[in-house]
Structure to design on (68 residues):
């Protein structure tokens, strides 16, 4: 038996190709605010931070488009 290093993982390559073909669509601010309220209600501080930063990214992109 011959050893191969690194071990080939075809599923990893397929996943990376799938990401390249279908870029993620940004969520609407309404969805993000709903998730932020939900995280705040249950006391999930990490979720609050993630959704708050996502809202900033989406709204910053929107304000930059309006400036152009």
């Amino acid at each position: 038996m011959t050893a191969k290093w690194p071990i080939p993982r075809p599923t990893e390559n397929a996943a990376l190709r799938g990401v390249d073909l279908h870029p993620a669509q940004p969520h609407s601010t309404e969805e993000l605010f709903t998730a932020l309220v939900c995280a705040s209600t249950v006391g999930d501080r990490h979720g609050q931070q993630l959704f708050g930063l996502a809202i900033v990214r989406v709204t910053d992109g929107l304000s930059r488009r309006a400036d152009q």
Summary: The CA atoms of residues 33 and 55 lie 7 Å apart. The longest helix spans residues 45-67. The chain is about 70% helix and 0% strand. The mean pLDDT is 83.
